[in-house]
Design a protein that fits this description.
Length: 427
C-alpha cells in the first residue's frame, strides 16, 4: 500500500510540474513603462481619452493627458486600445479546486462546523491551470475563500502571477466567513418539514451567536489557563482588523446578519444578497456592503421578475449601497467582466459596471488603498484590451501587468487551439 501511495504521489507531482508548461511568473519590473495614446478607464467613473499612464517599480507614477516619458522608459503606443484596472474576483475557490469530479484536487472544505482558525491561503495552488484562463480576461486578483461548515475560516486576496502561496499573498486573512443556515420557507413536500427546517436553522444560528459571545468573552480575559485556538484566531475580527462575510440570500437572513453586526460591533459584509434590492435602504442605513453572487441566474422567488438578478446591481447603486459582483466556483470567474456588462444593460452605466468589479470590490475586500483604480501611488495592476473589457465579443486582452510586471497571457486552452490549428492546416 505504501509503495502504491509513493507511486501515486510521484505521478501527481509529475503532473503538477507539467501544469504550466510554458508559463512562468514574470520577473520584477525593470525600466519605467509608459502606456500612451490609450483610452484610460480609471475605475472610479473617470475616463481619460488619448491619455498616458506611467508606472515604475510596480507603482503608478502618473495618469493623464500631459505625461511626458523619461529617457530611460519603455514606451508602448496603445492607440485605439483601452486601459483598465485589473478585475478583482471576490468569493472564489480558485486554486483550492482543480477538478470538481476528482476528490484529490479539492481542498476547499474542512470537517466540522466551527473552523475560524482555517486559513484558505496556505492551501492555495499557484500552479492551477484555471488561473491563466482568468488572467486572459483581465482578472488579476482574487479572494480565495474556504467553504464547508458554518464558520468556514478566513479568506485571503491573492495576485494571479506567483510561484507559490507566499508569493501570491496580496492581503492575508482579510475576512472570516459565516455561512448562515438557510431560512427559506420552501417545503420538501412533507407536512411541517419547512417549519422544522427553519427551527433547526434558527437553533444553529443561536449556536453561532453563543460561540461568538464566548469568543468575545475570551478576548476580554487578561490571562487564560489554556489557549483556545479557535477563539485566538478571532482576535483580528473583534479588533475590526478583519471583516465578517456573512453568506445569505433572503431578507430575514440579512436581518440576522445586521443583528450580528450590531451585537458584536463587527465590520460585516453580505455575500450573495439575492434579495438585497428589497431592503436596500436598511443596508444603506447600517452601512452594510453587498457582494452580489451569480448575477447570471434565475430569481430565488417565483413571483420575482425573471430579470431581477440583472437589475439588482442598479437598484443598489441608486440606493447608495456599496456593492460589487462575484461569481460562484472557480473557472466561472473568467466571465465576471461580462456579467458586469450585463448589469450595464440593466440600469448601470458602463463605468459604474466597471467600478463594480474593480474599485468597489477593492473597497469591500479592504485593498482599495493599493489597487482597484488607476491612480497615482497604487499598484500597477493593469489590463489592456482592444475593445470593451465588459463585452464578450469585443474584449481581447493584449497585455496585462500585475504590480508592474508584464505577465504571460497564454493558457492551456490557447495552446490547444494553436496545436490543432496546425494539425488541420488552419494556420
Amino acid at each position: 500500500m505504501k509503495k502504491q501511495l509513493i507511486i501515486c504521489t510521484l505521478a501527481l507531482s509529475a503532473y503538477a510540474a507539467r501544469a504550466q508548461e510554458t508559463i512562468s511568473p514574470a520577473g520584477p519590473q525593470g525600466k519605467p513603462v509608459y502606456l500612451t495614446n490609450a483610452t484610460i478607464h480609471v475605475g472610479n467613473g473617470q475616463v481619460i481619452e488619448n491619455g498616458t499612464i506611467a508606472f515604475s517599480n510596480g507603482k503608478i507614477t502618473a495618469v493623464g493627458n500631459n505625461v511626458t516619458a523619461s529617457n530611460d522608459a519603455t514606451v508602448l503606443d496603445l492607440k485605439g486600445e483601452h486601459v483598465y484596472p485589473g478585475i478583482i474576483a471576490p468569493e472564489t475557490n480558485l486554486g483550492l479546486v482543480e477538478f470538481e469530479s476528482v476528490r484529490a484536487t479539492i481542498d476547499a472544505r474542512e470537517v466540522g462546523e466551527m473552523n475560524p482558525s482555517v486559513r484558505s491561503l496556505i492551501a492555495y495552488n499557484a500552479d492551477s491551470k484555471v488561473i491563466n484562463t482568468l488572467r486572459s480576461n483581465g482578472i488579476l486578483l482574487a479572494q480565495v475563500t474556504p467553504q464547508g461548515g458554518v464558520i468556514s475560516g478566513t479568506s485571503s486576496v491573492v495576485q494571479l502571477d506567483a510561484w507559490n502561496w507566499e508569493d501570491a499573498a496580496y492581503k492575508t486573512d482579510n475576512a472570516l466567513h459565516f455561512f448562515l443556515p438557510s431560512l427559506s420557507p420552501a417545503s420538501s413536500g412533507r407536512s411541517g418539514a419547512s417549519g422544522d427546517r427553519q427551527k433547526l436553522a434558527m437553533e444553529q444560528i443561536e449556536k453561532v451567536r453563543t460561540f461568538f459571545r464566548e469568543a468575545k468573552a475570551y478576548q476580554q480575559e487578561g490571562k487564560h489557563s489554556a489557549a483556545n485556538l479557535k477563539f485566538e484566531s478571532m482576535r483580528k475580527l473583534f479588533a475590526r482588523e478583519q471583516k465578517l462575510f456573512i453568506h445569505c440570500e433572503l431578507v430575514k437572513e440579512m436581518l440576522v446578519a445586521i443583528d450580528f453586526a450590531k451585537e458584536f460591533q463587527l465590520d460585516v459584509a453580505i455575500v450573495g444578497g439575492t434579495d438585497s434590492w428589497l431592503m436596500a435602504d436598511i443596508l444603506k442605513q447600517n452601512n452594510i456592503p453587498v457582494i452580489l453572487s451569480q448575477p447570471h441566474a434565475l430569481p430565488v422567488m417565483q413571483d420575482d421578475d425573471i430579470d431581477q438578478p440583472y437589475k439588482t446591481a442598479a437598484q443598489l447603486q441608486k440606493a447608495g449601497v456599496l456593492f460589487c459582483l462575484s461569481n460562484e466556483g472557480f473557472w466561472q470567474q473568467r466571465n465576471l467582466g461580462f456579467e458586469a456588462g450585463t448589469a450595464a444593460t440593466y440600469g448601470l452605466t458602463k463605468e459604474e459596471a466597471l467600478t463594480a468589479v474593480t474599485l468597489n470590490a477593492a473597497k469591500i475586500l479592504g485593498i482599495d488603498k493599493t489597487t482597484g483604480s488607476l491612480e497615482t501611488g497604487k499598484d500597477a495592476n493593469i489590463a489592456v484590451s482592444k475593445g470593451d473589457i465588459l463585452d464578450m465579443k469585443s474584449s481581447v486582452i493584449t497585455r496585462a501587468f500585475i504590480q508592474g510586471r508584464e505577465i504571460n497571457l497564454d493558457n492551456k486552452q490557447k495552446q490547444l487551439y494553436e496545436k490543432y490549428k496546425q494539425k488541420y492546416g488552419l494556420k
